[in-house]
Design brief:
The complex is a heterodimer of chains A (about 400) and B (about 300). Chain A has helices at about 45-50, 95-105, 110-120, 135-150, 165-185, 195-200, 220-225, 230-235, 265-270, and strands spanning about 5-10, 20-25, 30-35, 60-65, 65, 80, 155-160, 185-190, 205-210, 210-215, 240-245, 255, 260, 280-285, 300-310, 315-320, 350-355, 365-370, 380. With about 400 residues, chain A is of the alpha+beta class. Chain A has 2 domains: about 5-230, 3-Layer(aba) Sandwich (Rossmann fold), CATH 3.40.50.300; about 235-380, no CATH class. A 6-stranded mixed β-sheet of chain A has the order 6-7-8-3-9-10, sandwiched between helices. In chain A, strands 13-12-11-14-19 form a 5-stranded antiparallel β-sheet. In chain A, strands 2-1-4-5 form a 4-stranded antiparallel β-sheet, with helices on one face. In chain A, strand 4 (about 60-65) and strand 5 form a beta hairpin. The two termini of chain A are about 40 Å apart. With about 300 residues, chain B is mainly α. Chain B has 2 domains: about 1-85, no CATH class; about 85-300, MetI-like (MetI-like fold), CATH 1.10.3720. Chain B contains 15 helices and no strands. Chain B is flat. Classes of the chains: A alpha+beta (about 400), B mainly alpha (about 300). Chains A and B meet through strand 6 and helix 2 of A and helix 10 and helix 11 of B.
Chain lengths: ~400, ~300
């Protein structure tokens, strides 16, 4: 068991492509760290560098106190679950799981015992004598997990282990992975492009974009206080609505198109840095769940939009609407902001989403009145996209 | 399309037999059944053509020399005898030549499979300078007819003091078989997903074990082909063996067979018997390899 730390780690491929740029990341012993980001953001490269499958161009990777930059993969004591599972087709399930132990010359009786107990944990005992080609996707995934946990490694790596499964199985195995990880209690680094997986699994989540770390914190902090528009757009499903807005001359209200939202003293105090942007254009973010329908018992600021599409999900209604305020779409989030459970957006541009209670009656074409709680607004700089806080 | 149409027209009015329905449901110029029949007959004709010499050889090996040299040859022996086999095995130290050949063939297979696997593994999995140039140099060797290489090979073996030795023969045979074997194995080795190898290494395997425990087992069909071709080559090679081997004790089977053909007389009966004996190992190797192909194919679908 050990912690993992990456210091200023950079990876430049031989063709000049910079996959990871100056990454600093600390994973405590026993921590479940999820690395998330759109495809091509370098997250798999990070994992492969920790495993030793990829050379590090510059920087340091440490396991505990030991620098492992030049340690061969086999001597790092890491276990990895691959996206394709990488089960050995010529071996049975039991042989697959026990292979690493055989390589370590563990006595046969001990191997048997550990394979059986791992199989029991994962519920794969009935298939121990089968070849992997005769298993379903979910079963193969469990075998891959079993192969990793049976070794009792000091670091556990998972590279999009659920992405080849159907949605239902994914939800089921997600819970199982979480259970297994807390049981074995080793530092785990889990790579995914699915923000739902990231939010539900990670003790902490590192958001990566173009090989650079955007933010690394607990899921709740990422959700509540995103460091920039990219994280704001990436975390949460459906993603946060981001508008270009004008901060008034007195700094007490923001103007979204033709609609104005007054800011209370509390809000202004909390976001003290807002003072620097008086009279300027900034980005205002509103989460879909912070846009309930206006009603008598819920006082707040009215915010109107033209409804374009209504998606009734039973427990809630997703209202896609449009306002006259320009919408900001952070680069790189466009294709991936929709997690598996969220519906596909009909109009990605200028499209805003609100999540309202199912008892309301909404139709496409309506002009609908939402409520905004100014305390729940997020503010970002227009140019850099960085959050405006204190 | 037209058949379906016809079916619809006929179906309500006439009841057809099951046979008719099957025939009509099968599309094609003659229908699948006719096509299958044609295919079977063609296969039988070609099969008979290739099997006939083998059968005739076996038949003649059981006939006394007098019966062989008649103007009315028969396929089924009229006076069957095993005297040819007794004679073939006991005269001219035929048994010794048989085992010489076995030694050479198995040695060649061993060296070829090991060296070709190592080379193909390097070509398939590593990047090094001049990799492709070296690879094509190997392939270029295939373009040179083996007969043209006899003199250089002889000189080489002479320098190594390996003339008239079975080991020298094994080396030459292996070198003849390596280019094609490397070419074949490289393709197979490259098809093994990289992630399997990475997982193997993370599980604690070193490079050699990646080859012996992962890539080789997954490439059994290719290894079987290499082993079979190499065995047959070494088993039946004549010209090189005749050039390199001088002493009677080191002769291989093809040379020994040649000794049944004398300057003035040929011992036809024993020659055929010896030929039959010489064919058996090739058949056995073929049958074993064939089982390996099937086992390998069933391993497919790696992902």
């Amino acid at each position: 068991m050990s912690s993992v730390s990456l210091e200023n780690v950079t990876k430049v491929y031989s063709n000049g492509y910079e996959a990871v740029n100056g990454l600093d990341l600390e994973i405590a012993d026993g921590e479940f760290m999820v690395v998330v980001g759109p495809s091509g953001c370098g997250k798999t490269t990070v994992l492969r560098m920790i495993a030793g499958l990829e050379n590090i161009t510059s920087g340091t990777v440490r396991f505990g106190e030991e620098v492992v930059n030049d340690v061969a993969p086999r001597d790092r004591d890491v276990a990895m679950v691959f996206q394709s599972y990488a089960l050995y087709p010529q071996m049975t399930v039991a042989q697959n799981i026990g292979f690493a132990l055989r390589m370590r010359k563990v006595p046969k009786a001990e191997i048997d015992r550990r394979v059986r107990s791992a199989a029991e944990v994962l519920g794969i005992t009935p298939w121990l004598d089968r070849k992997p080609t005769r298993l379903s996707g979910g079963q193969r995934q469990r075998v891959a997990m079993g192969r990793a946990i049976v070794r009792e490694p000091s670091v556990f790596l998972m590279d999009e282990p659920l992405s080849n499964l159907d949605a239902k199985l994914r939800v089921q195995l997600r819970a199982e992975i979480s259970r297994v990880q807390s049981r074995i209690g080793v530092a785990t680094i889990y790579v995914t492009h699915d923000q739902t997986e990231a939010m539900t699994l990670g003790h902490r989540v590192a958001v990566l974009r173009d090989g650079a770390l955007q933010q690394c914190d607990t899921p709740q902090v990422l959700y509540d206080r995103p460091a920039n528009v990219f994280v704001a757009g990436f975390i949460g499903s459906p993603s946060m609505n981001l508008f270009e807005a004008q901060l008034s001359a007195d700094g007490r209200s923001v103007k979204l198109g033709s609609q104005s939202i007054p800011l209370s003293q509390e809000v202004v105090d909390r976001h003290s840095a807002l003072r620097r942007f008086i009279g300027q254009t900034i980005v205002v973010g509103i989460r879909p769940e912070d846009l309930p329908a206006a009603s008598d018992e819920r006082p707040g600021v009215e915010f109107k939009g033209d409804v374009e599409l209504v998606e009734a999900l039973g427990s809630e209604i997703l209202v896609h609407f449009r306002t006259d305020a320009p919408v900001v779409v952070p680069e790189g989030t466009g294709a991936l902001i929709d997690g598996e459970e969220s519906p596909v957006k009909a109009t990605p541009e200028n499209d805003c989403v609100a999540r309202i209670e199912p008892r309301h009656v909404v139709h496409a074409g309506d002009r609908f009145c939402f409520t905004v709680n100014p305390e729940r607004l997020e503010f970002f700089e227009l140019d850099s996209g960085i959050t405006i806080w204190e | 399309m037209s058949l379906t149409f016809k079916d619809e027209l006929r179906a309500p009015t006439t009841r057809r037999t099951r046979r008719e329905r099957i025939r009509d449901s099968q599309p094609g110029l003659f229908g699948i059944r006719t096509w299958k029949k044609t295919r079977l007959i063609t296969a039988c004709i070609f099969g008979a053509i290739s099997v006939f010499p083998l059968l005739y050889m076996i038949s003649l090996s059981f006939q006394p020399t007098g019966d062989i040299l008649t103007s009315h040859p028969v396929l089924v022996p009229t006076r069957p005898t095993v005297i040819n086999y007794v004679q073939a095995w006991s005269e001219n130290s035929f048994g010794r030549y048989f085992f010489n050949s076995m030694e050479v063939a198995l040695g060649t297979v061993l060296i070829t499979v090991v060296l070709a696997s190592l080379a193909a593994f390097a070509f398939a999995r590593y990047n090094f300078r001049f990799k492709e140039i070296i690879f094509y140099a190997f392939l270029a060797a295939l373009a040179v007819p083996s007969v043209e290489l006899i003199i250089p090979q002889y000189l080489l073996v002479l320098k190594l003091h390996l003339t008239d030795s079975l080991f020298g023969l094994i080396l030459i045979y292996a070198s003849e078989n390596l280019p094609f074997s490397i070419f074949l194995l490289r393709g197979f080795f490259e098809a093994v997903p990289k992630e399997l190898e990475e997982s193997f290494r993370l599980d604690g395997a070193r490079t050699l074990r990646v080859l012996t425990r992962l890539i080789a087992p997954l490439s059994i069909p290719a290894l079987a082909v290499v082993a079979m071709f190499t065995f047959n080559f070494a088993w039946e090679e004549f010209v090189i063996a005749l050039t390199l081997i001088n002493s009677p004790t080191h002769r291989t089977l093809p040379i020994a067979l040649n000794f049944f053909i004398g300057e003035h007389t040929t011992q036809w009966g024993p020659l055929f018997a010896a030929s039959v004996i010489a064919t058996i190992p090739s058949l056995v190797v073929f049958l074993i390899s064939q089982r390996s192909f099937q086992r390998g194919v069933s391993l497919g679908g790696i992902r």
